[in-house]
Automatic annotation (TrEMBL):
Spermidine binds at residues 170-173. The keyword NADP does not apply. The lineage of its organism: Bacteria, Thermotogati, Thermotogota, Thermotogae, Thermotogales. It comes from Fervidobacterium thailandense. PROSITE patterns: PROKAR_LIPOPROTEIN. It is found in: Periplasm. Signal peptide: none annotated. One of its GO terms (biological process) is polyamine transport. One of its GO terms (cellular component) is periplasmic space. InterPro entries: SBP, Sperm_putr-bd. This is Extracellular solute-binding protein. One of its GO terms (molecular function) is polyamine binding.
Length: 344
């Protein structure tokens, strides 16, 4: 009887202890807040990280670097990790918004391709940023509706496609397209060249349905648009497998922009240690391969190809005629003024 009472007492004690432990565990569950481009990390990858580190990830999306920067600059965003493009990494460094990184906490940094690292002119010593992906923007064509086309930015001059095309709602990307078409650098600060690019974009504007960075992918997949300027990874992950042959991604013969999206930790991040763990997790070769497959993109992780299951839409070697968008300092006002005149 005494033994039975003792056994019951132990069971009750263990039950109470277990409830307390579970309660404490629930209250102590860490939250990582991420601000990134839409549909840029597979949900399965997020869930794997949450499970491994017993945490909750909150993922908010932005449609342009300008939108992202304005929100972070205004303060109080509450985010831990952000995924800006190169020129905006530089802007955020100069604005004092970023945490200086301790790369010893990111051992998987060693897997990044040296070619990609050499392109990070905005943060050459990787003191504040870690490359996530490198790629290009270009033209996606729905060949069910457009049978013949040149692999050129001149497609936006076609009156027969008026109302069925979109350009990105992104100032530097649109100017980059026009400048490359005209034979200029995407980073020119020559006011005459920027003026000529503005005039060309205004001609293109007559034929497009809208400037769009949020819905163009779904629009071309469902047939609302036939030609879009954008990121192929946003489009091809939405296309049903049986429809893939009807779509083509084109890097125009004149060249295009080159972008590197990076992972940065905000200076006022509330969970910096978990942020470090997330960055290192993303750089695991098998995780990097899963991301690249999801987006049909080349991976900047040199070991990822051992784990890849999909063929990318293009290779790093296809980007020779593409130019990275650099930070322009005060000279960006030349673009801002011209862009305002375009979108008014």
């Amino acid at each position: 009887m005494v033994v039975k009472k003792l056994f019951v007492t132990i069971i009750v004690f263990l039950g109470i202890f277990g409830l307390i432990a579970l309660s404490s565990c629930g209250k102590g569950k860490s939250t990582l807040r991420i601000y990134n481009w839409a549909d840029y990390i597979p949900q399965e990858v997020i869930e794997k990280f949450e499970k491994e580190y017993n945490c909750k990830v909150i993922y908010d999306a932005f449609a342009s670097n300008e939108e992202m920067y304005a929100k972070i600059k205004s303060g109080g965003s509450g985010y831990d990790i952000v995924f800006p493009s190169g020129d905006h990494v530089k802007m955020m460094i100069l604005a004092g918004l970023l945490e200086k990184l301790d790369l010893s906490k990111i051992p998987n940094f060693k897997y990044l391709d040296e070619l990609v690292l050499s392109k990070t002119t905005y943060d050459p010593n990787h003191e504040y940023s870690v490359p996530y992906l490198m790629g290009t923007t270009g033209i996606i064509v729905n060949k069910k509706y457009v049978k013949d086309f040149e692999r050129s930015w001149s497609i936006f001059e076609r009156k027969d496609l008026a109302g069925k095309m979109t350009l990105l709602d992104d100032m530097r990307e649109v100017f980059g397209a026009a400048l490359k078409y005209l034979g200029y650098s995407v980073n020119t600060t020559n006011s005459e060249e920027i003026q000529k690019a503005k005039e060309l974009i205004l001609k293109w504007k007559e034929n497009i349905a809208k400037f769009d960075a949020a819905n163009y992918a779904q629009g071309i997949v469902n047939g609302e648009f036939w030609v879009v300027h954008g990121y192929p990874e946003n489009v091809f992950q939405l296309i049903p497998e049986e429809e893939l042959e009807n779509f083509e991604f084109v890097i125009p013969e004149e060249g295009s922009t080159l972008w590197i999206d990076s992972m940065v930790i905000l200076k006022d991040a509330k969970n910096k240690e978990l942020a470090y763990k997330f960055i290192d997790f993303i750089l695991r070769p098998e995780i990097a391969a899963e991301i690249a497959d999801f987006l049909y993109m080349p991976s900047p992780n040199k070991e990822a190809k051992k784990y890849r299951k999909m063929k990318p839409l293009y290779e790093i070697s296809d980007l020779q005629n593409c130019e990275i968008i650099d930070y322009l300092g005060d000279k960006i006002d030349l673009y801002n003024k011209a862009w305002e005149e375009i979108i008014k």
